[in-house]
Amino acid sequence: SHRIFLLGAWPLFGDKELLELVRLTRILAYKNVMMGLNAQKLEDFYQEQLTIYRENKDFSKLKKNFTDRIDDIHMNTKRYFEIESEMGFAAKAVLHTINRALAPKANQMSVLDKQIHIEHIAPKTKTKAWTDELDVAEEISPGDYEDIISKIGNLTLLDPSINTSISNKSFAEK
Q: Pick from 4, 22, 29, 107: CA 20 to 30 A from residue 170's CA?
């Protein structure tokens, strides 16, 4: 739905305004997906905003409407990324965005590719070697270890053949 909106918006804005609108649209669409909100309501919002802009040509009002809508979506991102989305689309999307920013000329993969796995750098299974690598006590509780390794900073995207071959190897080997 955001693509249809942006195609309609494209001829109406200069480069700077369009870039800002794309940014706001991505944030709004992302938050909408993360919270499992109704896609039709989001599409209706996009179309309504385009109609309003065509009538009054006020980009600052359009931007305010988008930022207000974004701010109205309340979410617990810390909980979402640490618990609910560990293996989900959102984690893949964030990691994919980071990869593209750090290596824009690298071979591009689709965030939707089911062949791309999310690998835990520190493995899910606690070992002495990894508690040493993480500089945590061996006696750390399973729940505390899970809290450490389930953060998005412990995740990376990998081809499944590489993921399988590195399994629980040391940090240096990974």
A: 107
Q: Rounded distance, CA 133 to CA 136, Å?
A: 8
What contacts 4, CB < 8 A, 6 or more positions away?
43, 46
Q: Let me know: does 152 contact 161? Beta carbons within 8 Å.
A: no
Ranges assigned E (strand) in the chain: 117-120, 155-158
17-61 pLDDT per residue, tens: 999 999 999 999 988 887 778 889 999 999 999 999 999 999 999
Burial 63-83 (b: 16+ CB within 10 A, else e): eebbeebeeeeeeeeeebbee
Burial class (CB in 10 A: 0-12, 13-18, 19+), 100: middle
For 67-88, the DSSP string reads HHHHHH----HHHIIIIITTTS
* Cα 117 from Cα 96, distance rounded (Å): 11
State the Cα torsion 39-42-47-48 to the nearest 10°: 140
Q: Distance between CA 44 and CA 2 in Å, rounded? A: 10
